[in-house]
Amino acid sequence: MSIYDTLNAEQKRAVEHDKGPLLILAGAGSGKTRVLTHRIAYLMENKGVNPWNILALTFTNKAAGEMRERVDNIVGYGSENIWVSTFHSTCVRILRRWIDVLGFDKGFTIYDSDDQKTLMREICKYLQIDTKNMKERSLLSVISSAKDELITPEEYELRAVGDFTKGKYAAVYKEYQKRLRANNALDFDDLICKTIELFQTSKEALAYYQRRFQYIMVDEYQDTNTAQFKLIKLLADGVNEEGLREHNLCVVGDDDQSIYKFRGANIFNILNFEKEYPQAKVIKLEQNYRSTKRILEAANEVIANNVGRKDKALWTDNAEGDVVHFTQFDRDSQEAECIVNEIAQAVQSEEASYQDFAILYRTNAQSRIFEEKLVVKNIPYKIIGSINFYARKEVKDLLSYLKTIGNGQDSLAVKRIINIPKRGIGLATIDKVEEYAIRNDISFYEALRQADYIPGLQRAAARISPFVSLIEILKSNISRPDYSISDLLDEIIEATGYIEDLKGQELENEDDRIEIIGELKSKIVAFEEAALEPPSLSDFLEEVALVSDIDNLTEDNNVVVLMTLHSAKGLEFPYVYLCGMEEGIFPSYMSIHADDPETEIEEERRLCYVGITRAMKRLSLSACSQRMLRGETQFNRPSRFIREIPRYLLTMEQNPYNSNPFRSNSHASLVPEFNSRLQPAGVAHSTNPAASSNRDMGSIFDKNKPFTQPPREFGGSNLGTIDYGIGDTVSHIKFGVGLVTNINNAGKDYEVTVDFGTTGTKKMLASFAKLKKLS
DNA sequence: GAATAATAATTTTTT
DNA sequence: ATTATTATTC
C-alpha cells in the first residue's frame, strides 16, 4: 500500500507522468493540488529527481505555502529545497540577484497600486493631461495591458503612429517607465517583464535558471498572461545534462475558472497549450470530491451557458445533499442580519462551527454591512481584502520612512513623509526642490541634501536640513550589526514624534490608529522571528508588497470568513453564502454595459461557477430588492445566474422578515424593532422617482420572470412619486431644514428647489438629495 | 507660504 | 463614506 493508491486512475496517470509537457485540466474540487503535490513527491521518491531542480509556480503565497507543507508531509525530507513560490516572488528573487544587468540597483522598491496612482498623477500634471478625459486608472490599465502583452514603450509608440489617443498613451507610458527607473522602482507587471528582459539580455542568467529548473509546475494555469507564459516557456526551454530539450512542464488549470481576464489572463494559454507543445499529454480530472450532487449540478447548469469551453463533465460520488437555497430579501440589511442569525443558530445548536462558514460577495464594499451585524452578534469573523492593512495611512507613512531609508531614490516615499509630521514644508517648497532635481538630473532626496544651493529657498532650506539629518542618522544605524527592523521602526516613531503628532490631531479614532502602528510593529517582529537569518530592510518591504491578505488565512482560527468571489478561488467551505445575487451587482453593472457584454458576462458566469463550487455541504444564495451603494439606494432584479439553476435544485425561501415576523426562531424579538426602523424613515428613498428608472436596468427579465413568488412592495406602493410638494418643510442631511419653493419634472427625476434660509437656496435632484418631509 | 476648511470625485474583481 | 483637490484664511 503506497500513498499513490489513494489516487483515482486519472490522478495516478498525472502523478506518474515524468518527462515532457503535460496539461492537466482539473475541474473544481477534483484534487488538483493533491495531484501536484503527489507528483512532486513521486518525482523525488521514484524518479530520483533532485528537489533543487523543481520549480512550482502559484498565484498566491498561500497556495505556495500549502503546497510546500503538503509535499513535506508526504516526503518528509528535502521539500525546503523545492522552489515553490508565486510568479511575482520568484521574479523578485531572481531580480534581486541580477537586476544590475538592466541598470537598476538591487535594492529596488516595488510599487503597489496606490504608488502607481500617485506616480501617474504626477505624470498627468507634468504632461498636462486633463484627467477628466483620461483617468489615471485607465492610463494605468492601458500600460498594464501593454506590459502583459510584452509591448515596450518604444513599440507602443511605433504602433501608435497616426492615432492621437494612442500617441498620448505612448507618451505617458514612456514617462511612467522613465520615472520608475529614476525612482529605482518596479511595479507588479515589471517584475515579470524585467525578468524576461533579463533572460533576453543575459544568456548567463537564463542558462543558470534553465539548468536549475528541470521540472516546472504551474498552478492555476488559466490565469497566466502572455508575459507569464513567455517566462515559463523561456525557463522550460533549457536542456538537461544530456543536452536534450525535454520541456518537463506540467500545467494545471480549469478554463471554467478563468476569472482574471481583466488582469490580462490569456485564456489561449490553456486552450492552445497543445498547439504550442504538440507532444503534450492531456489529462482530464473530472471527478469532484468536494461538493454534493445537487451543488455540483447547479454549478454545471450555470456554466453550461458559456460557449467556447473545453469539453468536460464534472461528476461526483458524493451524497445527493441538501437543495440549494435561494432567498430574496427586501434590503441588504435584512440579508446580512438573516445570514448572520442563521450562522449563529447553526453554531449554537452545534451543527457546525464558525470556520465552516464563508460569506462571499462580488465587491468588497458589500462586506461592511455584514461586519456590522457580526459585531452586534459577537461572532468572530475575518474579512479578507477589503481595507488592506498596508493601505492604512499610518502604515503607509511609516513604511515610507522605511522605504526612504532603504532606497533614497524612491522619490514617492520621500515626498509622502517630508511634511509628516508637519515641518513647515509646503507645496511651493516641494515644487522648487523637484524642479532643481529635474534640472540637475538627481533624485528628489539628493536635491533635499543640497537644499542650501537651491535658489529661492532661504527659510525653507532651514526646515529641510533637520529632515535630511534625521534620515541620515537613521540610515547610518542600518549598518550596525545588531540592528533590527523593529528597532528602526521604534527609532523612527521616537525621532519623528509620530504618535504624539497623531494624538495632537484630535482625531476621533486615535486609539485605532495607534493600535494599527502596534500591529505593524508586531508584523515586523513576527517577520524577523520567522526568518532563518536576519532579514534586510528590502526583504521586509518586499514581503509587504507581495503578501496579500488571503495568504494569512489559516485554518486554526475558528472564525467566519468574508471575502470576494475572486479571493475565494482555491478554497472550500462546508457552508457557503453567495449574497448579492442581483443584476448590476453580479453580474456587475460594468459587465452588462461593456462594449462586449457577451464575453464579459461569460467571465462573470465563471466567477459564479467558482463561487458555487466552493460549497461542500450547503449553498445559500440571496438577493435584495433594495440596496445601499455609495450612499445611494439601488433597486435590482435577481441575477440571471439564479435563473440558470434549474428550479428542481432550488428552494425559494420566504423572506423571514416579511412573511412571518414571529417565525419560531430564537431571534424573533429582533423583528418588530427592525421593521419599525425600516418603514417610515426609509420611505423617502423608496418613493423617489429615480428609483423606478434604476429599476429598469434589470428589465430584461420582465418578459421572462423566473419567480413564482408574488412581487412584494417596498414600504409603500407609491413608487415613482415624492411625498412632499411646494410649500412643504423638508430636511436635508447636510443643509438642514428648508422650505420647498419649486419642483420641476426633469425627465426621469424631479428637480427640487429648497430654501434653506441662511444656508441659501439650493436646486437638487430628488433622487440624490434624500429629502425628508417634516410635517 | 503653509494650514485649514470646503468641495469634488470615486469603486469591480488583484499579484 | 472616504479621500484628493481647491479655495480661503492665517
From TrEMBL:
Entry EC no(s): 5.6.2.4
UniProt-listed Pfam families: PcrA_UvrD_tudor (PF21196), UvrD-helicase (PF00580), UvrD_C (PF13361)
Superkingdom of origin: Bacteria
Keywords assigned: ATP-binding, DNA-binding, Helicase, Hydrolase, Isomerase, Nucleotide-binding
EC supergroup of this enzyme: isomerase
Domain UvrD-like helicase C-terminal, chain residue ranges per copy: 293-570
Domain UvrD-like helicase ATP-binding residues, every copy: 5-292
Gene Ontology BP term (one): recombinational repair
Known catalytic reactions: ATP + H2O = ADP + phosphate + H(+); Couples ATP hydrolysis with the unwinding of duplex DNA by translocating in the 3'-5' direction
Protein family according to the UniProt entry: Belongs to the helicase family. UvrD subfamily.
Protein name: ATP-dependent DNA helicase PcrA
An example Gene Ontology molecular-function term: ATP hydrolysis activity
Organism of origin: Anaerocolumna xylanovorans DSM 12503
Binding site for ATP: A26, G27, A28, G29, S30, G31, K32, T33
Cellular component GO terms held in the UniProt record: cytosol; DNA helicase complex
